[in-house]
Design goal:
The chain is an all-alpha fold and 80 residues long. The chain is 82% helix and 0% strand. It has two helices and no strands. It is flat.
């Protein structure tokens, strides 16, 4: 039991080191590249517009589904 615990602890400590090294590499690459020129305000506006359009489409589909459901509910399918 202790051997498994020891292996898990070592694996976890190695994972933390790998993550730290990855973040250091990413930070170094960002420092070398410099400013990309992206405007965060435009990015936020595009995301908000995209989400708004998606919610509008979902709302329209729900409304159409509800309307179709009420029409189907009035049909008697069990008549013989």
């Amino acid at each position: 039991m202790k051997d498994t615990y020891l292996k898990a602890t070592v694996a976890l400590s190695l994972l933390a080191g790998r993550v730290r090294a990855h973040f250091a590499d990413a930070y170094e690459e960002m420092s070398e590249r410099g400013e990309r020129g992206d405007n965060p305000v435009v990015t936020v506006l595009l995301w908000v517009a995209g989400i708004t359009v998606a919610l509008g489409i979902i709302g329209a589909l729900v409304k159409l589904g509800t309307k179709a459901s009420t029409k189907v509910d009035n049909v008697d399918l069990d008549s013989k």
